[in-house]
Amino acid sequence: MYWNSKDMSVFLEQQEYIDTAVVPLLLVDGQASKLKQNASSVEFIMALTAFIENQFKGRVVLIPPVTYTQRTNREQLGTEWDEMLKEAGFKHLFFISSDMRWGTESSSLDVIYTPSIPLEHMDKKLRQSVLDDQLRQIIPVFAKRWANSTK
């Protein structure tokens, strides 16, 4: 499900089943030397989170991406999004980023880090295979968190 009026109507009606928000965290870096690499990372995370949404349709809502810069206070950003999404009724929050700093800096968010894989020169079949591989690595993280909440 996506963050649009039609899907949010379904979410509100079936909140007990649609309990998970997937949030892409996207670093936007304006340094000329990092523009292409940064754009490639954004492309990868957006493709991966859309693929996750498709695989778990009926269980997750793909939230619009949260963009930030190098200067963003990550702790504050994390706290605000965590609180807002829980207030909206989501029981599980999966923040996904290819920015390693989410794992190395202090943050209240439990971010799923996945290294960025450049997709721009891949044909459709290879791109699908890469996304399948990444999803196979993420599924156990989702399953573990979902299972821990039922205990």
Polypeptide structure, described:
This protein is of the alpha/beta class. It has one domain (5-149). 49% of the residues lie in helices and 15% in strands. It has five helices and five strands; from the N terminus they run αβαββαβαβα. It has helices at residues 5-13, 35-55, 74-87, 101-104, 124-149; strands at 20-27, 60-62, 66-68, 92-97, 111-113. Strands 1, 2, 3, 4 and 5 form a five-stranded parallel sheet that branches. Helix 2 (35-55) links the parallel strand 1 and strand 2 (60-62). Helix 2 (35-55) crosses helix 5 (124-149). The longest helix has 26 residues, at 124-149. It is globular. The model has no long low-confidence stretch (mean pLDDT 89).
